[in-house]
Amino acid sequence: MNTLDRRHFLKSGLLAAAGASLAACVPMARLRQTDQYQYTLTLEPAPFELIPGTQTPGLGFNGQYPSPILRAKQGQPLTVTVINKLDQPTTIHWHGIRIDIAMDGVPFLSQKPIMPGERFVYRFTPPDAGTFWYHPHVNSVEQLGKGLVGMLLVEEADSPDFSPSEFAADLPLMLKNWHLNDDGSFKPLTIPRYAARMGTPGNYETINGLHKPEMEVPANRWVRLRFANVDNTVMYKLRIKNRPAFIASIDANPLPRPKKLKHHTIGAGMRVDIVLKTPPAGEEVIIQNGKGKLFFDFMRLKTVQARDGLTGDAPMPRLPLNPLPEPDLANAETKRFVFEWEGAVTPADDQGKANHKFWTINRRAWEGMSADNIPAPLATLDLGKSYVFDLKNNTPHAHPIHIHGVMFKVIKSNKKRIEPFFTDTVLMAKNERVKIAFVADNPGRWMYHCHVIEHMKTGLMGYIEIR
Ligand SMILES: [Cu+2]
After folding, report:
1. Whether residue 65 sits in one domain with residue 126
2. Do both 139 and 261 map to the same domain?
3. Which residues neighbour ligand 1 (ion) by CB within 5 Å?
4. How far apart are CA 141 and CA 88, in angstroms?
5. Ligand 1: distance of its center to the CA of 264 in Å?
6. How far, in Å, from the CA of 365 to the mean position of ligand 1?
7. 66 and 84, same structural domain?
8. Which residues of the chain have pLDDT under 70?
9. Could you tell me which of 116, 315, 337, 340 has the fewest CB atoms within 10 Å of its CB?
10. What is the distance between the alpha carbons of residues 187 and 182, in angstroms, rounded to a whole number?
11. Short-list 192, 95, 109, 102, CA closest to 144
12. What is the model's pLDDT at position 393?
């Protein structure tokens, strides 16, 4: 504690306590009150203290960062009333949730934008459990970049095989790299020459709004670390320096067998749940982030004596699998998509404002859309049929490719051996070719885009239609 300022200790301590109390919430969830998961999110300008002693003029859910953590339960209805107190339209997208198209939160494609002063009620029942997140799908460089990003944790449905209380702590860890001057004001969130490359990285790394935080966890117990990359741009290469750890779940989907963690990279929008058994009281767990071949300390977990009266020799808790449809590979139809770099194509609009297009999918840069101009889909899929998407990244940059409305299975890569896994966002390395497969079981028009926000805004976006 002496090496960190008091504010950091207090704030991170509170978060750890909030995580630990998830287990304590379970008996209430078992009451099966259908109106239990109700929230209100107000989007509004808000000052945040990110760099200690400074104020950042952010945009916040309920005026705060870190944003409220929404907790829901698999198979039970969730209601979120969204109130727009910004000076611009917005919507909220629930990343990774297999949802009804009317609730997907994409302006024009699934709903009217929520105008300043208006509200919209999102109602849905998450079919899958796991680590999800939420964010606007309008003016994303600014709205997400200035703080409108939050985590949605869907607790596993009651089952005799698994209880969330098997984890002594359950920590949501929201990773974001802010674009800040020393006085807390914003630097430019996007610079065209970077948008045409890897994206414009921030310079102030935070976990739950804190730089290099320290959190308390119970000693000698299994803990669940839910990492969510809510950043607009950067990748995180996560490693636990001094303890064995396991990848339990990727983008909300538990692996059939947890995989030993060496290091694991998550691009913008991606999540990973890592479980580990904490060391004896007084010892630390050091979490690192890699840049190139080097790793740097990123956060610390301090262990304190557990007071649960247990012995600490329980086996690793095993998350139940989500009820995902298995694609029928033998009868699947293949669709090919090539992601390319187009160079600096910079048409100006009628106000003379530059409208950069750098990226294409199948030779087409996303045109943008409005109420009376919705461009054609990139592909039209038959409801109920299985598809293989053959994705080719013909660019020298990495792209986390996300599809709304479905979970897909990554089945093949030309760069590495793949043990097939379900996900909602696949990180494609430069020049990588990946095959994914899924059942087109959710009717609607679903966005299909790179989650590097500047890439999607400068062309690398489109949608598929399932009907
Ligand atoms: Cu990209």
Report:
1. yes
2. no
3. 399, 450, 452, 455
4. 13
5. 19
6. 12
7. yes
8. 1-35, 343-354
9. 315
10. 10
11. 95
12. 98
Cβ atoms of residues 51 and 182 within 8 Å? yes
C-beta separation of 416 from 431 below 8 A: no
Please name every residue paired with 392 in a beta bridge, in sequence order, or none if there are none.
338, 433
Distance CA 421, CA 463 (A): 23
Are 139 and 168 members of one domain? Answer: no
Q: Report the Cα 161 to chain-centroid distance in Å.
A: 27
**Which CATH number does the domain housing residue 126 bear?**
2.60.40.420
Q: Are 429 and 394 in contact (CB under 8 A)?
A: no
Distance 457 CA to ligand 1 centre (A): 10
Same domain, 42 and 101: yes
- Identify the burial level of 188 via C-beta atoms within 10 angstroms of its C-beta, where 0-12 means exposed, 13-18 middle and 19 or more buried: exposed
Distance 450 CA to ligand 1 centre (A): 5
447: nearest Cα among 427, 466, 426, 428: 466
Same domain, 369 and 453: yes
Task: Please report the pLDDT score of residue 347 as a whole number.
Answer: 58
| DSSP-derived secondary structure letter, 329 | G
CA 40 to ligand 1 centroid distance, Å: 32
* Same domain? 300 vs 352: no
Please give the distance, rounded to the nearest whole angstrom, from the Cα atom of residue 322 to the centre of ligand 1: 28
In a domain, 312, yes or no: no
**Which residue do the tokens 């859309």 mark?**
369
DSSP reduced 3-state for 349: coil
Which of 271, 304, 337 delimits the end of a domain?
304
292 plus 176 within the same structural domain: yes
- Report the pLDDT value the prediction gives residue 9, as an integer from 0 to 100: 36
How far apart, in whole angstroms, are the C-alpha atoms of residue 448 and residue 405?
Answer: 10
**Total count of domains within the chain:** 3
**Per-residue confidence (pLDDT) for residue 438, from 0 to 100:** 98
**Residue 292 CB partners (closer than 8 Å, separation 6+):** none
The pLDDT, as a whole number, for residue 311 is 87
Residue 349 has what pLDDT?
61
In a domain, 321, yes or no: no
Q: Which domain holds residue 74?
A: 6-155
